[in-house]
């Protein structure tokens, strides 16, 4: 469990260093040119580490039910969330997801980052939303996991 905590703290440190490097212009030029998708990826990862660290303290301290069988989940979750942060950017840019925020140009990027953070924080619901959108738009069937989750809600 200590290794998992250190793993997520390391991720948070890396995110912070990358944000500072980006804001000070110390990243490669090609990455600075694509700062919006890059920050969406970071926001997704940040959401993941926040969620995982919360999960650790809840399961260890509050519920007293830490189970080592979840270790792979804690290690893989940030990687999945980084991907979801980028996917949220793609769907927003493509116009497949819309933000109901003010349309001022400078406020637009904050909505992108907020959605990417939420995508990283709650991967399961984000994937369900994307699958629901794909089903409604293109008729693509939802995955078995999404169908099982939908059946649990009823």
Tell me, briefly, the overall form: flat
Biggest sheet, open or closed, and with what strands and sense?
A: none
How much is the radius of gyration in Å? 17 Å
Beta-strand proportion: under 5%
Q: In DSSP terms, counting alpha (H) and pi (I) runs of 4 or more, how many helices?
A: 7
Which sequence of SSEs, written as H and E, runs from N to C?
Answer: HHHHHHH
Poorly predicted ranges = none
Task: State the domain count.
Answer: 2
Number of strands: 0
**What share of the residues lie within helices?**
over 70%
How far apart, in Å, are the first and last alpha carbons?
35 Å
Mean pLDDT: 89
SS class: mainly alpha
Could you characterize the architecture of this molecule?
By secondary structure, the chain is mostly helical. It has two domains: 120 residues, no CATH class; 32 residues, no CATH class. Helices cover 79% and strands 0% of the residues. It has seven helices and no strands. Helix 3 packs parallel to helix 5 and helix 5 packs across helix 6. The longest helix has 28 residues. It starts with a helix and ends with a helix. The relative contact order is 0.13.
Topology:
Layout: H1 2-23, H2 29-33, H3 35-62, H4 71-93, H5 105-121, H6 123-138, H7 144-153
Helix pairs in contact: 1-3, 1-4, 3-4, 3-5, 4-5, 5-6
